[in-house]
Amino acid sequence: MSERMTVTYLNVSDKPGSIVCTMGMHIISMDFYMAKLLLIRRKDGGLYIAYPNEKYISNKTGREEFSNYFWFGKKTADFFQIEGFKAIQAFCQQKGIPDPTNGQSPALKNPAPSAFEV
Questions:
Q1: For residues 86 and 104, is the Cβ–Cβ distance under 8 A?
Q2: Over 50: is that where the pLDDT of 115 sits?
């Protein structure tokens, strides 16, 4: 079980598509709770945890875009992905429910080397 983060709730999607599940998490050291996180399946099959965001129409382009409510720097974002996956897997094992990550690791693009040294 991850001692750095815990899952507060997890709802697996029964609809086909890129959203695997929605969840809430708690970063214990900061006493920071997050809701409406999404576990997303990319086109290449990789998984990642997406932050809560809002959809809006860009004034510049006129296209639909998304804006995160918050974000982390590169090192912290990679660490969040790694610990988030551990927390999901621990939560599912504890509750006796199927693990939506299927034991995968997060699909990190060019991971920050220091993210693995924390």
A1: no
A2: no
